Amino acid sequence: MKRVRVKVAVLIAFMSISGCNIGSEEPAVNGAVLFPGQSIEATNKNGKVRISYVTSIKRKYEWDGKVKIVKMIPRKEPFSGRLGLYQPANSWGLNPFEIRLVVEEASIDFGKEDQIYAFLKQSSAYMDWAYTSDGLVVGFGRTPSRKQSNIDLWQILLRGQKPVGLIGARREQIVLTEQK
Asked: How far apart are alpha carbons 142 and 30 in whole angstroms?
C-alpha cells in the first residue's frame, strides 16, 4: 500500500512539474482578447453580434436571434503569427440545416502600420470589419452557400502596443462592456 502511495505522489509531482493541469478545465490562453466579465457588441453591414467571455476557453456568441456557447481550441503554436483561440466548426453535427459558426479570437502583432491595413483589406471580401482607433476589431461575415457565419475578434497591436488613430475606425459600431 505504501508503494502505491509513493508511485501516485511521484506521478502527481511529475505531472505538475511538466505542466499538466490536474482537474482543471481552465487552461491559460496566450493571446486571448476577452477577459472575465467582458462582452463586446459590434454592428456591421451583416448585422449585430455579441461575444461574451464564459471561461478561458468558452465564449457565448449571439447573432441573428441565435445564441451559442462555443468551446474553443487554444493555440499552442502560432498560426499566421497569432495564438489565441479558434473553433473551425468542421462539421454540422446532428443538424445539417444548422448554421455553422466559425470563430476566432486573438491578438495580432504587426511590425508596420501598412501591414495592419493590408490584413484588414485582404479579408474584406467575405468579412466586414468594425474596429476602434486602438485596434479592437470585430468581423462578422456570412457564407450562405456553406450555411456558415464567421465571427472574428482581434486586438491588433503595432510592435507590441495598441495602435493610436487607425484610419477607418468606426468606434460607434463597437461597445465593450465589463461587469464587476
From this structure: 28
CA angle, residues 37, 43, 177, in degrees to nearest 5: 20
Query: What are the residues facing 73 on neighbouring strands?
Result: 86
Residue 20's pLDDT is 45
The domain ranges of the chain are 25-178
List, for residues 23-33, the tens digit of each pLDDT value.
456 788 999 99
Contact (CB, 8 A) for 119 and 105: no
Q: pLDDT digits over 58-101, tens only? A: 999 999 899 999 999 999 988 888 899 999 986 656 666 778 89
Residue 30 CB partners (closer than 8 Å, separation 6+): 74, 75, 83, 84
Rounded to whole angstroms, the Cα distance separating 50 from 69 reads 12
